[in-house]
Amino acid sequence: MRQTQTCDGVTRRDAVKVGVLGATGLTLSGILRAEAFAAAEGKVLPGKATSAIFINLTGGPSHMDTFDLKPNAPAEYRGEFNPITTNVPGIEISEHLPKLAQCADKFSILRGVSHTLAAHALGQEYVISGNRPLPSLQYPSIGSVVAKELTAPTDLPPFVAVPRTNMAGGFLGVKYNPLNTAATPRIGQRFTVRGVSIDSENALNEARRREKLLGSLDVTFKGYEQSSQLIEGLDEFGQKAFDVMTSPTAKRAFDISQESDSFSEKFGETPLGGSALLALRLVEAGTRFVTLTYGGWDTHNTNWERLKDRQLPPLDQALSALLTGLEERGLLETTAVFVTGEFGRTPKINNRDPSPGRDHYPRCMFMLLAGGGIQGGQVIGESDDKATGPLNDAITPDDAAASLYQSLGINYEKEYHTATGRPIMIVRNGTPIPQLFS
After folding, report:
1. Are 400 and 337 in contact (CB under 8 A)?
2. Residue 364 predicted with pLDDT over 60
3. 45: pLDDT confidence band, cut at 50, 70 and 90?
4. Residue 267 covered by a domain
5. What is the distance between the alpha carbons of residues 119 and 340, in angstroms, rounded to a whole number?
6. CB-based burial, 327-361: b 16+ in 10 Å, e otherwise
7. Quick check: is 6 in a domain?
8. The domain spanning residue 153 has which CATH number?
9. What is the pTM of this model?
10. Alpha carbon of 287 to those of 81, 101, 170, 188, 220: distances in Å?
11. Do residues 256 and 187 lie in contact, with contact meaning Cβ atoms separated by under 8 Å?
12. Is residue 234 situated within a structural domain?
């Protein structure tokens, strides 16, 4: 999938370098959720998911033109798209998402999700970590936490990004960074990832020689290992890279050409479709976290043309095929799926030339969650009549992240320690959304 530069000139790769002042406290809804979970004495309920797929819609998709339409709003808010019914009575989504409309029973829609960070980089840092950014601390991404907490097979990378991501290990260190594929697969074609799909015996012999050399260097660095996350991470990378390079399991998982035509054609011929199929194969093999980045949602102008012709059709086909494919393979109950952008877009249409659009708007957005014990076929939360904000209590990115961890059986209140000994909870201010699991 393409590298997409957003309107502020920040690429996704740059986003992790940015911090922000401020913090947020529990909302009323958060307090109520905390009370709802008090019966569990603060303990995390057993999660059903063993892996997760995170689909990152970078640029900020319009909630009003996708999953939170307002057909009765004034014309300057309503937009050009109409709602259609889904296979769940009472739930409507955009007319340009017909395949997702037919599998709405498999996912939950969160409406009225809200925060206050209107810059791409800051909003991204928030949703990929579940913590409002701070200038003094780089929080680990959700993928990095999952890679740390859930054991993966030794011959598979625990955390894979397709094609790349701004998710990183933060204060946990580089050992929890993802393997970036740096490219996207194409349906029906063999996909090669540098360092994974190596067939040459000479290349493998060279890798074995370097592995032996690294073993001798371990003696030299032994005194530094306890105090340096970088040395520890590099050592971890070396061993993991060697295991993956020599693994038939990894080669099979990355080779989407092994799928039957009847199964793979459902995903479509777009880069997102190939990436979604690869994500399914990776979690089936044992990878714990896969993130897919699908940019192009920064629609300040030509909003409806871009959504209708370019953005929504691939998302509709790839995501619906992923959800139904996971179910067909018996993986939906053990794979949590999380779809989000960094914010929504302004309910009131702007007057930009050559064609109007919508601008950044963090006060109201949508998220989708599915699988891993999450109850599908429901809408949780609600926006007001013009989708300008939550009608009642807001759902926050912190709550959504805590819910994903709940699905995975990870204690979102667990404390880690930074290199300086500072205790930091995995999610500082969020609590799981009980309705997702009811």
Report:
1. no
2. yes
3. low
4. yes
5. 15
6. beeebbebbbbbbbbbbbbbbebeeeeeebbbbbb
7. no
8. 3.40.720.10
9. 0.85
10. 38, 29, 20, 22, 32
11. yes
12. no
